[in-house]
Amino acid sequence: MDEITLGLEWFLNPDHVPFVVADERGYYEEAGLDVELWEPPEHYDTLEMLADGELDYAVTEPIHLVPERSTGVPVTGIARFLHTRGGIQYPTDRGWESPADLEPGVRLNYPGAPGPGGRRMVAYMMREAGGDLTADDIEPVDRGFYHTDALVEGDADVAFLAFYNFEIVESRHRGFDADLWELADYGVPDFNRLVLTAADETVEDRPDEVQRFVDATRRGVVDAVEDGEAAVELFFDRHPGLREEDPELMDAIAAATREFFTPDLSQDVEMYRELAAFCEELELSEGPVDAEAVVDDRFA
To answer: Global pTM?
Structure first.
């Protein structure tokens, strides 16, 4: 049995149902794998740990994978397993029809504030909508990933990057009517995906293990789609503490998330080409990135 550690991109949540299902239903064991899930103390820790050999595999988002690759971190996407909807979270009672309606001084909550990355992406979406604001016209708000809290409590006017299956579901559950201006509608490559990654060395030296891991994970993804209610129940049976604070909210998030799992694990190299160019244009990366070096689809 090969023991491997999978680093998550965030705290354990319904995005990770397929991994728990694959473990509980014996798919990993049948593939000769003993898989441990590792939760990072910070959202951005996993890729450098992966490259350093502290993890065997990691979950990340393309918007992190491309900039990391530009700095020389030798990690590669090996499979996509979730493709959701994401963008700017905004309250629907302000009369705004698009990002072009936002005015100078708009307060934006985003992880990494007051750094420029989140403001640059939102300003880009504003300009694509017909506005003329720059990143300097946006006031950064640092409430981390607590987007809905920042809006409900009046600390921010809008938030980025928010996802339909989390923040919009959460907002409506709390009686706060919010919606999304989605990335692809305003010229941004649709990077609203979760992907499995491995170090380049792992891909080259242990391809059989990589294939076994991807194939077993695919079975978990398929179950999450085709047998979703049972898969979610299995997930919460194993991790009951996740539902303790607000079971109705977690059930709603899990139900929404089920709709976005992708049994087709292929990764869309063209999106990565567009994302690499986007990151270079907005100075989110340190230089050009070859999309073919970021994605290895032979295992999908």
So the answer is: 0.96
